[in-house]
Amino acid sequence: MRSVFVLFSMLLLFSCEDEVTVKPAAMLRLEYPVPSYTQSATNCYYSFQKNTLSNLETKQRCGMNLEYPFMNATVYLTYQAVKGNNLDSLLYDAQKLTYEHNKKAQAIFEQPRADSINKVYGMFYAIDGNAATQSQFYVTDSINHFVTGSLYFNAKPNYDSIYPAVMYLRNDIRHIMETITWENN
User: Fold this and answer.
1) pTM of structure
2) I want to staple 48 with a disulfide (CB 3.0 to 4.6 A). Which of 10, 90, 175, 180 is the partner?
3) Is the dihedral of CA 21, 24, 25, 31 positive or negative?
4) In whole angstroms, what is the distance from residue 71 CA to residue 32 CA?
5) Do 110 and 125 meet the contact criterion of CB atoms below 8 Å apart?
6) How many CB atoms lie within 10 A of CB 124?
7) CA distance 103 to 174
8) Tens digits of residue pLDDT in 58-110
9) 87 three-state secondary structure
10) CA 95 – CA 115 distance, rounded (Å)
């Protein structure tokens, strides 16, 4: 019995060889088309230029969903009227919502926006890491209008995998902030 065990052990040891397979270095390369923009057509208090690859869905009280089906992502826009002295609370809520993602985020970068000619003031937040949202923003005219926006992917957040789409959509969000105009409805 012992000789069978020794023979089996020897066969097992000598039959195992590590074959080295050289694999080329490769990375996932996702390319998206150059964005082309068109003016959003809504009956709300604001309008902006949107990417032609996105679908705009108007919700209640001038909220909007800007869906990107080829990326499985949505930018959710919420409108609120500035009334009396509620601008401070609107700003606080927008900032609080962003920094609640600090638990999962590796970093949160702020980029202020101030356009005194068109009366658009706001903040863009780039959130790096496996947070639920990768970008958020708010814009206001400081008198009548306040819009917040959040980017969400319809998948579990994995920042490394969605990074190319995040960068593409961050540019779209910045374009929204740069082209937003206030309507007098």
Assistant:
1) 0.81
2) 180
3) negative
4) 10
5) yes
6) 20
7) 25
8) 998 999 999 999 999 999 999 999 998 899 999 999 988 888 877 788 888 99
9) helix
10) 20
| pLDDT tens-digit map of 130-162 | 888 999 999 999 999 999 999 999 988 788 888
The tokens for 81 are 């009227």
* Bridge-based pairing state of the strands 46-47 and 181-182: antiparallel
CA distances 173 to 15, 70, 85, 117, 139, Å, are: 59, 17, 28, 20, 11
- Contact criterion met (CB below 8 Å) for 156 and 64: no
Phi, psi of 63 (to 5 degrees): -75, 155
Q: Which tokens belong to 39?
A: 């003016």
> Rounded CA gap, 147 and 90, in Å?
10
Contact 54, 153 (CB under 8 A): no
Q: Tokens 């959040």 map to which residue?
A: 150
**Phi and psi, residue 45, nearest 5°:** -80, 0
State the sign of the Cα–Cα–Cα–Cα dihedral 160, 138, 48, 111: negative
3-state SS, residue 140: strand
Eight-state DSSP code of residue 102: G
